[in-house]
C-alpha cells in the first residue's frame, strides 16, 4: 500500500514530538444496556453481580436513570438515531430531551456523557450533515439554557465506517462521509477538544476478523501463541492483539487530523456468543468468554496500547442481556432471564482518575515510507 509522504511526515511529527504530561489513570470498564422493555431491578442486580460502576444506556428510559439516583454508578446516555435530524433543525427538541432524561436526575444521577446518535453514519448516511448541528444544539441547550457544564457531548462511530486504511495502524486516516466537506472529522474533533469531550468509537474485532480472512483468530482473541502477532513496519511496533491495532488506528487518524490529544472512549466492544444465521461458527459462548476475559485482563494490566500508553479512557462491553427472541447475534453477558452466561471478574476495573493522555514516543524511520506490506 502506497502511503503519501506528507501523511507519513504528519504521523512522524505527531508520534515523535507530541508527548503530553499525564497523571496516573486506569481505564474504566463498563457495560451497555440496550434491551427493552426496561428492567430496572434486573439491571441493578446485574451491575452488582458484575461489580461494575459504569453503565451505557442505549435509548435510555427515564425509569432506569431514576433507579441509579444516589449511587456511585456513572451513566453514559445515547440519543436515538431517529432523533438526530429533528434535533439538528430544532433546538427546542434538544432541550425537551434534556428535560426528560437529564434535568430530573442530574447531579443525583452521575450522568457523565451523552452521545448524539450511535453509529448514525451507518443508519442514516444521507443525513450525516445533520450530525454536527445536532451535537451543537444539544451542547448549547445543556450549557447555555440549563447551565450544566460537566457532561460531555459527543457522538459514536463504528470503526469500519470511520477509519480508512486501518492496516498497519500507522497508515490509518479518517474516511470522510460522502456528501460532506473534506473536514467533517476535523470539525468534530475541534468541537470535542474545545469542550473537553471524548471521541467515541465502537471497536469489534469480531467484525473485522470476519471481513478480513487473513486475520488469525488468535490475534482477535488476545491469544499469545506463535504467529499471533503483526508488525507495523513503519513504526516498528509489534501488535499481539487486534483490539490494540484498531485503537491505534484511531490514534493515528486523530494525529493526522491534528487532534491527537482528544481522549478516546470505546463505546462498544464484545464477541457474539451465538448467531441464528448458521454460518458463524466463531460466534459461540467459548470464544465470547475468552474475548471478554482477556479484554478485562488486558485493560486491568494498565499497559494501554503501543501508541496510547495510558489506554483509552473507558471501555463498554456490549452488552448486558441477550434480547429475547432476537434474530441475528447474541452478545449478552446474561441470558434474557438474567442468568449469568459466564463468570468474568471485573473487579478492579471500575474506577479511574481523569488526567491528560500521553502518547508514547515512537521513533519513525522515513526510509520505509515508500510502501508497507501488512497482514
UniProtKB/TrEMBL annotation:
GO biological process, one term: carbohydrate metabolic process
Reaction(s) the record says it catalyses: Hydrolysis of (1->3)-beta-D-glucosidic linkages in (1->3)-beta-D-glucans
Molecular function per GO: glucan endo-1,3-beta-D-glucosidase activity
One family name in Pfam for this protein: Glyco_hydro_17
Residues spanning the signal sequence: none
Domain of life, per lineage: Eukaryota
Annotated EC: 3.2.1.39
Keyword vocabulary terms for this entry: Glycosidase, Hydrolase
InterPro entries reported for this sequence: GH, Glyco_hydro_17, Glyco_hydro_17_plant
Entry similarity comment: Belongs to the glycosyl hydrolase 17 family.
Protein's UniProt name: glucan endo-1,3-beta-D-glucosidase
Amino acid at each position: 500500500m502506497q502511503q503519501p509522504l506528507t501523511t507519513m511526515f504528519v504521523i512522524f511529527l505527531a508520534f515523535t514530538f507530541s508527548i503530553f504530561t499525564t497523571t496516573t489513570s486506569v481505564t474504566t470498564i463498563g457495560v451497555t444496556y440496550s434491551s427493552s422493555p426496561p428492567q430496572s431491578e434486573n439491571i441493578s442486580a446485574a451491575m452488582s453481580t458484575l461489580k461494575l460502576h459504569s453503565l451505557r444506556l442505549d435509548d435510555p428510559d427515564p425509569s432506569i436513570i431514576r433507579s441509579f439516583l444516589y449511587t456511585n454508578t456513572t451513566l453514559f446516555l445515547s440519543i436515538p438515531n431517529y432523533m438526530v435530524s429533528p434535533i439538528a433543525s430544532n433546538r427546542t427538541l434538544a432541550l425537551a430531551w434534556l428535560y426528560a432524561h437529564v434535568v430530573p436526575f442530574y447531579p443525583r444521577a452521575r450522568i457523565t456523557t451523552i452521545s448524539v446518535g450511535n453509529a448514525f453514519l451507518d443508519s442514516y448516511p444521507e443525513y450525516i450533515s445533520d450530525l454536527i448541528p445536532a451535537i451543537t444544539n444539544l451542547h448549547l441547550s445543556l450549557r447555555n439554557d440549563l447551565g450544566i457544564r460537566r457532561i460531555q457531548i459527543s457522538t459514536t462511530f463504528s470503526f469500519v465506517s470511520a477509519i480508512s486504511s486501518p492496516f498497519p495502524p500507522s497508515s490509518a486516516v479518517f474516511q470522510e462521509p460522502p456528501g460532506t466537506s473534506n473536514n467533517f472529522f476535523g470539525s468534530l474533533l475541534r468541537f470535542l477538544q474545545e469542550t473537553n469531550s471524548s471521541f467515541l468509537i465502537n471497536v469489534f474485532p469480531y467484525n473485522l476478523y470476519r471481513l478480513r480472512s487473513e486475520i488469525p483468530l488468535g490475534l482477535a482473541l488476545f491469544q499469545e501463541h506463535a504467529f499471533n502477532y503483526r508488525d507495523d513496519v513503519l513504526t516498528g511496533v509489534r501488535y499481539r492483539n487486534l483490539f490494540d491495532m484498531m485503537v491505534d488506528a484511531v490514534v493515528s487518524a486523530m494525529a493526522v487530523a491534528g487532534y491527537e490529544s482528544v481522549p478516546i472512549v470505546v463505546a462498544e466492544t464484545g464477541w457474539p456468543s451465538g448467531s441464528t444465521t448458521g454460518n458463524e461458527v466463531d460466534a459461540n459462548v467459548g470464544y465470547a468468554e475468552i474475548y471478554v476475559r482477556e479484554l478485562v485482563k488486558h485493560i486491568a494490566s494498565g499497559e494501554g496500547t503501543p501508541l496510547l500508553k495510558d489506554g483509552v479512557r473507558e471501555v463498554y462491553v456490549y452488552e448486558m442481556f441477550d434480547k429475547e427472541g432476537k434474530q441475528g447475534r447474541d452478545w449478552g453477558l446474561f441470558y434474557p432471564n438474567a442468568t449469568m452466561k459466564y463468570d468474568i471478574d471485573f473487579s478492579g476495573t471500575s474506577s479511574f482518575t481523569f488526567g491528560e493522555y500521553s502518547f508514547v514516543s515512537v521513533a519513525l524511520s522515513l526510509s520505509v515510507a515508500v510502501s508497507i506490506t501488512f497482514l
